[in-house]
Amino acid sequence: REQQRVLELGARWDAIANMDRSDLEKADRKELRAEVKALKAEAKTYDRGGTTIYFSTAGFVIIILLLIILL
User: Fold this and answer.
1) CA atoms of 20 and 18, how far apart (whole Å)
2) One-character DSSP codes across 40-58
3) pTM to 2 decimals?
4) Scanning 10, 14, 16, 50, which has its CA 20 to 30 A from the CA of 38?
5) What tens-digit pLDDT sequence spans the chain (71 residues)?
6) Residue 12 contacts by C-beta under 8 Å, 6 or more apart in sequence?
């Protein structure tokens, strides 16, 4: 459920970013800025601050080889 909401936030963010804002009135641009600010705040509540570890294939092979050699 949280993941779905995060995807919705991202979709809305993309829609705003790709929107042609040059023909909007000042009040409309102000509303969009407020919406973006609210989206950022809500997205921050879903950020758990976790650490992501990325392994490349070569790194994985090296780790396996080291385990074989050491064990």
Assistant:
1) 7
2) HHHHHHH----------HH
3) 0.59
4) 50
5) 778 888 898 899 899 888 888 888 999 999 999 999 999 888 888 776 666 666 688 888 888 898 999 88
6) 35, 39
